[in-house]
Write a structure and sequence with these properties.
The structure holds 2 protein chains of 2 kinds. Chain A contains 12 helices and 2 strands, in the order H-H-H-H-H-H-H-H-H-E-E-H-H-H. By secondary structure, chain A is mainly alpha-helical. Chain B is mainly α. The chains are: A mainly alpha, B mainly alpha. Chains A and B meet through helix 2, helix 3, helix 11 and helix 12 of A and helix 1, helix 2, helix 3, helix 6 and helix 7 of B.
Chain lengths: 311, 246
């Protein structure tokens, strides 16, 4: 027992000294589990997140936009790969993780359970959803677990490019015809609150937060990051000459931040429970791709085995 | 020259579009990413041809006008590239039939007396060298993989074989292009394409289907029913909101 305590103390001391924890280092089981849960959720989010944007590839309205959208979704697949690899360093296989996604046991970001209804959604998703994701991810670049922190550095570079791309798409629409402006405003209206929910419950209701902060997996609280996001978007929307669907949004001179209205946590909890508009479809699409690809993966393995025998 | 450029542009655009349909739905993440890469290369190539065609017209039209505002009867692509993705074996077989032609076609096009075309061909050839390697390796893997994969890829070749003839049969504007020196003599590249096909099919332990009746018509705008649906999706936003900048 006493060695266990001292291991934990040494571990916490390293974290307090801002040293990175690496795969072969001793770590408490709960730290490992928390990271596996968080990194795999993050990886699954990238992979499920390909679907709502993929929905518009074949309808992208210009060749330039089509190429940009394809490249963006390909980046997301790439992020999924680095993140699965980061999770694998904690002693679990990509296949096990993926099965947890397909069985519905593992979660992914609820934002991807909303539908992409118009072309303007490609802009709103890039600007707001990737914008919210970046707030979280920039903080994760300083996470105590080395492989996760390093994966995040790469992810963040690409994500910030995606966010600018999304904003530029909306900016083009904002300078366009009245129909295009209306399309952009409608997309912002639909994606605003779900993006705000991406930061998770209020700090007072966030069960995992305190321990994660102590372990420096999490560096800032949900509410802190949410406020940072609101402050950024409330300024950027002025450039678009559009509005956010929150009548309570206003600058608070005293706090030096924007005040904003209350989030509808009932909706958040329902989507989390599986009752969002697309929960079933998203998971069904992932299962279909996986099941229909089984014979391909088997063939590749069988062929590789034959090659190895003949060498 | 216009039809010849549109043939090249539409071939790469439509095949790129089909590959884009896989994005997010591939058999595994690595394959998904590879297919998206192919789509990106092909659509990139099509843009070079469309831009050139638009400039030659000199009517102030853009690459997007050519891609999004022509109707199916004006598209010049081969029937092969508009065929549905089907299962992964169909996609691989379709791509391999296209790539094994495209590779030798571009090699010859590098000798075009039109400098701009030769330059586009040179750049595209680098990408298509990889495309041909990718599809050849998958033909071999699936052919010489499991019983199921063998029968699926054989079936795919049996179904798609009838569309390969069109690639090597010149439309009138291609004959003109070849004799004017800016196009490609399809008869000259035929033996190279045939050898490559036979070689890869043999390595894949697959039966080379009989060269029976070959479908044609795409190059002169008589397409299969599939193209209309591709364009309905592809052109929808442009046509629903005309004269807008995206």
């Amino acid at each position: 027992m006493s060695t266990q305590v001292s291991l934990e103390e040494r571990f916490q001391a390293r974290i307090d000294a801002e040293q990175k924890i690496e795969p072969k280092d001793w770590m408490p089981e709960a730290y490992r589990k928390t990271l596996i849960r968080q990194i795999s959720q993050h990886a699954h989010s990238e992979v499920v997140g390909m679907l709502p944007e993929g929905n518009w590839i074949t309808r992208a309205p210009s060749l330039r936009r089509k190429v940009a959208l394809l490249a963006k979704i390909q980046d997301e697949a790439g992020h999924g790969l680095y993140l699965y690899s980061a999770a694998e360093t904690l002693g679990i296989s990509r296949e096990e993780l993926y099965n947890e996604l397909l069985s519905g046991k593992a979660k992914y970001s609820s934002i991807f359970n909303y539908p992409t209804l118009t072309w303007a959604d490609m802009g709103a998703v890039g600007w707001l959803v990737d914008g919210a994701a970046i707030m979280n991810q920039v903080a994760l670049c300083k996470c105590s677990y080395g492989p996760y922190a390093r994966a995040m550095v790469r992810v963040c570079k690409e994500e910030s490019f995606h966010q600018r791309q999304g904003f530029e798409l909306l900016l083009t629409l904002s300078k366009g015809t009245p129909e295009q402006r209306a399309m952009a405003q409608d997309a912002i209206n639909r994606w605003w609150w779900p993006s705000m929910m991406m930061f998770g419950p209020n700090d007072s209701d966030s069960p995992h937060s305190a321990q994660s902060m102590r372990w420096k997996i999490k560096r800032y609280s949900n509410d802190t990051l949410r406020q940072k996001f609101v402050d950024m978007i409330a300024e950027q929307i002025k450039v678009l000459n559009m509005t956010l669907p929150d009548p309570d949004l206003r600058w608070n001179e005293e706090r030096g931040h924007y005040d904003f209205g209350a989030i509808d946590w009932t909706e958040f909890n329902e989507v989390l429970k599986g009752n969002g508009p697309c929960n079933r479809e998203r998971l069904a699409a992932r299962r279909k791709a996986w099941e229909e690809g089984a014979w391909v993966r088997e063939a590749a393995m069988a062929h590789a085995a034959k090659r190895q025998q003949s060498v | 020259m216009r039809d010849f450029l549109l043939l090249l542009a539409d071939n790469t655009q439509i095949l790129g579009h089909r590959l884009g349909e896989w994005c997010g739905h591939g058999p595994e993440l690595e394959i998904d990413m590879a297919m998206t890469n192919l789509a990106l290369d092909l659509i990139g190539q099509s843009r070079n041809y469309y831009q050139y065609a638009a400039e030659l017209e000199g009517a102030g039209r853009t690459e997007d006008d050519l891609a999004y505002l022509r109707d199916a009867r004006e598209f010049r692509n081969c029937l092969l590239v508009e065929q549905p993705n089907g299962d992964f074996a169909h996609t691989v077989a379709r791509n391999f039939l296209f790539d094994s032609w495209h590779y030798f076609f571009l090699q010859a096009l590098c000798q075009s007396n039109d400098e701009r075309l030769a330059a586009i061909a040179g750049k595209s050839l680098k990408e298509v060298t990889y495309h041909l390697r990718w599809s050849s390796e998958w033909v071999i893997r699936l052919g010489d993989g499991t019983e199921e994969s063998h029968s699926r890829i054989q079936d795919a070749f049996d179904n798609l074989w009838t569309f390969r003839g069109e690639l090597l049969t010149p439309a009138p504007f291609e004959t003109e292009a070849a004799s004017a020196g800016y196009g490609v003599d399809l008869h000259a590249i035929r033996p190279l394409v045939e050898d490559r096909l036979s070689d890869i099919l043999a390595q894949a332990t697959l039966q080379r289907p009989e060269d029976g009746w070959m479908q044609s018509g795409g190059k002169t705008g008589r397409h299969s029913e599939h193209l209309g649906y591709i364009l309905a999706e592809m052109q929808y936003v442009q046509r629903a909101y005309p004269n807008s900048v995206w």
